Known about the structure:
The complex is a heterodimer of chains A (305) and B (416).
Chain A: E1 6-15, E2 18-28, E3 33-37, H1 44-51, E4 59-64, E5 67-68, H2 71-74, E6 77-80, H3 92-102, H4 107-120, H5 136-148, E7 154-158, H6 166-181, E8 185-190, H7 193-199, E9 202-207, E10 210-216, H8 217-223, E11 228-234, E12 246-251, E13 256-260, H9 266-276, E14 278-285, H10 289-304
Parallel strand pairs in A: 3-8, 3-9, 6-7, 7-8
Antiparallel strand pairs in A: 1-2, 1-4, 4-5, 9-10, 11-13, 11-14, 12-13
Chain B: H1 2-17, H2 19-46, E1 51-57, H3 63-71, E2 81-83, H4 91-104, E3 109-113, H5 117-120, E4 124-127, H6 133-154, H7 159-165, E5 174-177, E6 180-183, H8 187-219, H9 222-227, H10 232-267, H11 279-306, H12 310-329, H13 331-336, H14 341-348, H15 353-363, H16 368-396, H17 406-414
Parallel strand pairs in B: 1-2, 1-3
Antiparallel strand pairs in B: 3-4, 5-6
Helix pairs in contact in B: 1-10, 2-10, 3-6, 8-10, 8-11, 8-12, 8-15, 10-11, 11-12, 11-15, 11-16, 14-15, 16-17
Amino acid sequence: xxxxxxxxxxxxxxxxxxxxxxxxxxxxxxxxxxxxxxxxxxxxxxxxxxxxxxxxxxxxxxxxxxxxxxxxxxxxxxxxxxxxxxxxxxxxxxxxxxxxxxxxxxxxxxxxxxxxxxxxxxxxxxxxxxxxxxxxxxxxxxxxxxxxxxxxxxxxxxxxxxxxxxxxxxxxxxxxxxxxxxxxxxxxxxxxxxxxxxxxxxxxxxxxxxxxxxxxxxxxxxxxxxxxxxxxxxxxxxxxxxxxxxxxxxxxxxxxxxxxxxxxxxxxxxxxxxxxxxxxxxxxxxxxxxxxxxxxxxxxxxxxx
Amino acid sequence: xxxxxxxxxxxxxxxxxxxxxxxxxxxxxxxxxxxxxxxxxxxxxxxxxxxxxxxxxxxxxxxxxxxxxxxxxxxxxxxxxxxxxxxxxxxxxxxxxxxxxxxxxxxxxxxxxxxxxxxxxxxxxxxxxxxxxxxxxxxxxxxxxxxxxxxxxxxxxxxxxxxxxxxxxxxxxxxxxxxxxxxxxxxxxxxxxxxxxxxxxxxxxxxxxxxxxxxxxxxxxxxxxxxxxxxxxxxxxxxxxxxxxxxxxxxxxxxxxxxxxxxxxxxxxxxxxxxxxxxxxxxxxxxxxxxxxxxxxxxxxxxxxxxxxxxxxxxxxxxxxxxxxxxxxxxxxxxxxxxxxxxxxxxxxxxxxxxxxxxxxxxxxxxxxxxxxxxxxxxxxxxxxxxxxxxxxxxxxxxxxxxxxxxxxxxxxxxx
Lengths: 305, 416
């Protein structure tokens, strides 16, 4: 039972000439929380749809829990598409049971499991209402219940946190953490790097249908080394960009982030800074996923252009 | 299999619970009854007021006879005309005066015979309203009768005797079937018409219901969640079966209503001249409804899957509607001559079979081999149509944006 939860081998998909996903290979370990990152149009949704067998790949193979994707393995996966979809004029309880039944859960059992979920997400007194009587946030929560009610081993969530208010985000994060504790594999796609950095233990970054990088979050970051300096100061810091070994200076107002080349010496920067400015903060750190993401995507874009 | 049942149940329960279903199922028969009985009742009420009519006769030989005929009570409604004496003076003056009276509303109509009316066989009627067909018909036959009687008398013949001798033949139509004979006063035609209209409207209605259901799932993006759980073919089949079952439920309610009504009618002394609806006819109605439903319903589903909104569906649904409408248009041809080569051919064309073969069954039962052949051909076409539609459906439900052209849809069907 130590095989991967999901393994994609060279999958590809093209729509009338446009390549959406190009020989993509990935694996997601069991129990991992995995982030699939990429800019809009990178092929995230197409990839998730292929994993869910909503679309058939043109090339390559998909294995779920060690077996080729089939009805049986689909029952053990819960899928929340980016475009949320429930029947607007159907009663909430009724349709959640319907979706669980589609996953092969007997109605009675689904009914028993439903109550705790409704309670936990605060939908208990809304269960006899039609969906379109609920607020957007509540509809999102109902959608999430539809995804987990059959107690899947793998959850595939396309942009799970978009459209939620801060309270909703917190509730969902607690649920994710709980799912992880219970050994569930969670795959989520996002372009909100902060979320991914906080929630995921491994990631893959894709752009234009191809994988740019993947691995454990810590490993990906350390691959880039401690090449970033955060500096807060009083005075005119315009000279920082021209110091030897400085690649880029990003000004965030209250502080700047300085990206260094590999051979640069952070101590040189510190010395120069203290000699000309009043430094209140100096820290050498790993780059954020956001920076890695932006750098990788723009680099590839320039190479392609 | 269990998942198919799940889809079927959802479709069925949601349909049957909907207001539209309840309304059309229970109000439908009432509406039909209203349409059938309403106009007759209104017409009878309107006929309450007799017309004031004056007769001006320049020949001097017709007025008495015409007035007498007009004053006769008409069926149960009583006399339809009140005779008003014409204005004094010569016929021309009387005619003018009468016309003025009509214009001023003192008179409803003026019947005028010119001096050579007996030779030319022409008369004139002046009225503000000349479209009250039924009353004018009565008036015309009264005038006609008077003129003919006069001419016969002038020729030395006895009008009453001639009328007796030239009485029209009353042709009784007796329908011979294997189970016996039965006099038919148009019930067969009426029944065929009624059942065909029902078949047509229900196939169109439930076909459109499928289409709208598919569009709803697509626009609300429910479909992606569903096809991530079950194969598209299961969803497609479940939808067809579920909606079709709702259609059959509606028929059952209607059939039961009809049975209760006709039972009631029979108990009340045959008040309603209900035509004979044999169980066999009912069974074939259901069979041909199902054939039509699956044939057109699957195509409607494909249309629904190809479009994004109901507005877009209108134009794409038209080619699907076309054969259905044509089948309905051909009905007089087939009913007039159910055994002709044309009727047989038309009724064997699968897209027409559900309506036209059923129509032939209501008129003259066709040979068994033709029924069998029609079933085989239609079932084969249904197999083809559902294959095509389910493939278009599979691709279409995940396609958003521009409405596809017909060649694109065909390409979808052929895609891997």
